[in-house]
Amino acid sequence: MRRLLVAAALIAAAGCGTTTAQPLGQVQLSAADALAQTAQKAEDVQSYAADIVVDFSDPKGGAGNVRGTMLFQQKPTLASDITLSQVTFGGQALPGGVRVILDGETAYLKLDLLKQLAGTTKPWVKVSLTDLGDDASVRQFLSQAQQIDLKSAVALLTASKDVQAAGNETVGNVQTTHYTGTFPVAEAVKLLPPDAQAGLSGQLSVVKDMKFDAWIDAEGLPRKIQLNGGADQATFTAALVFTSFNEQLSISAPPADQVGEMPKNAPVAE
């Protein structure tokens, strides 16, 4: 069950290429250079807000989808707030969705299902990354939630060797250039920091080549990133639609009187 809690929050949502020149602001760049510049721009982004859209299909378990939002900030402290308002699988919906707030080394989880399965009495439960002991799976998932960010998402795309421009499109009232391509997952993961490589390589190892679409604005910032993959007849589409960059965000822990500890008897899903 614990894996289910944190894994749901991680859906979220990252060179070489063709030489066809495409406009980025007032500069003509190749498609590969445009992605490389976007990766550099992402290094300077201190906060962002994004919508999360995930659809997946598994012949063994049925179809499902996830809808939600994500807030992320680097300063004054590393923090994120992920709200998955809709989580369904095989025709069954997760009652009340799930919300995860990560504040430094502490995660706060809000999941109505915990009340039924573990008898929690508080709306939120707290998990400390430093107190997880031998529960390595939970620590890994929570760490990944901190690592799967804008910079990682864009970095994965720069491993593409076949990226090309697909025209100009508007995303959220912003003019963008649409790029498409694929990247080899094994090679792309090597572009990430060492602490992020192990977890993501495991999550994506079933996919050899990932298809992607990226919509980049005139400032070199991604307005939308979409990944498409599949293996063993299972498929998924995951998209992040960015709604703001470098704006003041409000990410804080829930009130103390609404927070309890993760029950020791909470079942762990394998």
TrEMBL record:
- Signal peptide: which range, if any? 1-21
Decide whether keyword Signal is in the record: yes
Known PROSITE patterns for this protein?
PROKAR_LIPOPROTEIN (PS51257)
* Coiled-coil regions listed: none
InterPro entries xrefs: LolA/LolB/LppX (IPR029046)
Q: Which UniProt keywords apply?
A: Signal
**UniProt keyword Transmembrane present:** no
Specify the domain of life of the species encoding this protein. Answer: Bacteria
Q: What is this protein called?
A: LppX_LprAFG lipoprotein
What species was this sequence derived from?
Acrocarpospora corrugata
